[in-house]
């Protein structure tokens, strides 16, 4: 068990990976501090609903324990069905053909070698939860240790620890180690890896939205991919999850996420931080000729909740090597950003949290070999995850990135 005399573990960012790591440290009485650039948990839109894999659920359960996980599980939605139901968005018919051009060109042997999305994770159900709900659950008990409006821009090693450096030039207290969990723009990741960790802009864009559950009655229970091949500028698709028991309650909402090939969706002034009406109007325009069975999802959408998003991806070949620094490491999107294809990113992020938290618990807190042990194991599963995510997105979004592709700037 860690002692109160220990300096804290410093964590940059208050996303799901950082907060689950904090839960792990809290449970093992290892002191920590979180620094988040936003002013509160509700400062910005939380994004789309997250689908949880068996590995993701196992990781969360290992951190939260039986009682905590049961509370988490109760918040999750569980949807039946064996996999995606593909619907032609303009005709409303259930598709039996592959829903991308690249799939149509593949032989049966090639299709068999392509990545496959596995939806069911427990009890034969597809399990999902909103990002906002997940953050709130993971944050429980950690609130006193979160410093809002603190954007970490760098770090400084000391003779006996590390300090986070903030945007205004001030520094944190000295910590035992620093964990960069602050997403694709992580300055910690950039400095630690000396630029080896890169996040590429795939050029593809999307829109998140939500509507009253009654708008989904034309679909019924299941996980759906609505595919539109009629747009002259490129394919458009929407993924949504219709859970049983809620479709008659107009006070509840289901979410959907829209994606399209590069060039189809463009935010005003190329500003993808815009939320609300501009995003909603584009979503409605792109679905104007869709089948009446599907139109309510967009016609009845909550316009204020619509938000744009960029589709990014780390180096498709996987997580690169860098010179290990015992006092600093990275988790989640800061080290392995993924496309939404396959719903792999969040599940890989919580695996990071459980792994690093477990190693710190076993060591009784910071030890000089913890980050190397974590990074060695993380690279194996994260590299496989990035490759799978990119392979799926290449087929679904029509993207292609190389070492010369545009990267997301810091």
From TrEMBL:
Essential cofactor(s): FAD
Bias (Basic and acidic residues) ranges: 101-113
Name this polypeptide is given: FAD-binding domain-containing protein
One Pfam match: FAD_binding_3
Keywords: FAD, Flavoprotein, Monooxygenase, Oxidoreductase
Species of provenance: Endocarpon pusillum
MF terms (GO), sorted A to Z: FAD binding; monooxygenase activity
Matching Gene3D superfamilies: FAD/NAD(P)-binding domain
Region: Disordered, residue numbers: 89-113
Coiled coil feature spans: none
Domain FAD-binding: 146-385
């Amino acid at each position: 068990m860690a002692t109160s005399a220990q300096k804290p573990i410093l964590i940059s960012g208050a996303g799901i990976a950082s907060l689950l790591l904090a839960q792990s440290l809290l449970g093992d009485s290892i002191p920590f501090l979180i620094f988040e650039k936003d002013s509160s948990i509700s400062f910005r839109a939380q994004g789309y609903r997250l689908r949880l894999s068996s590995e993701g659920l196992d990781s969360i359960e290992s951190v939260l324990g039986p009682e905590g996980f049961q509370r988490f599980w109760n918040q999750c939605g569980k949807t039946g069905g064996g996999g995606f139901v593909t619907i032609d968005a303009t005709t409303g018919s259930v598709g039996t053909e592959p829903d991308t051009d690249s799939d149509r060109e593949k032989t049966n042997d090639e299709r068999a070698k392509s990545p496959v999305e596995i939806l069911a994770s427990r009890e034969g159900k597809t399990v999902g939860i909103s990002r906002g709900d997940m953050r709130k659950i993971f944050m429980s008990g950690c609130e006193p240790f979160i410093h809002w409006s603190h954007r970490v821009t760098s770090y400084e090693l000391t003779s006996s620890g590390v300090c986070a450096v903030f945007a205004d030039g001030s520094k944190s207290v000295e910590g035992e180690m620093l964990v960069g969990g602050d997403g694709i723009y992580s300055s910690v990741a950039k400095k630690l890896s000396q630029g080896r960790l890169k996040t590429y802009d795939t050029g593809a864009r999307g829109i998140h939205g939500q509507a009253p559950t009654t708008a989904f009655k034309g679909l019924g229970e299941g996980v759906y991919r609505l595919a539109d091949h009629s747009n002259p500028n490129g394919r458009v698709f929407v993924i949504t999850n219709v859970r049983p028991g809620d479709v008659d309650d107009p006070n509840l909402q289901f979410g959907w996420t829209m994606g399209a090939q590069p060039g189809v969706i463009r935010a005003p002034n190329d500003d993808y931080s815009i939320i609300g009406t501009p995003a909603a109007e584009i979503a409605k325009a792109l679905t104007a000729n869709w089948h009446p069975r599907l139109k309510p999802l967009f016609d009845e959408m909550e316009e204020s909740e619509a938000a744009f998003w960029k589709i990014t991806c780390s180096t498709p070949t996987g997580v690169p090597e860098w010179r290990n620094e015992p006092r600093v490491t990275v988790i989640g999107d800061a080290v392995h950003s993924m496309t939404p294809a396959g719903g792999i990113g969040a599940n890989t992020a919580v695996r990071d949290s459980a792994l690093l938290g477990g190693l710190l618990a076993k060591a009784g807190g910071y030890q000089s070999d913890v980050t190397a042990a974590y990074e060695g194991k993380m690279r194996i599963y994260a590299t496989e995850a990035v490759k799978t995510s990119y392979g799926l997105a290449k087929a679904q979004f029509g993207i292609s990135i190389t070492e010369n592709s545009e990267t997301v700037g810091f």
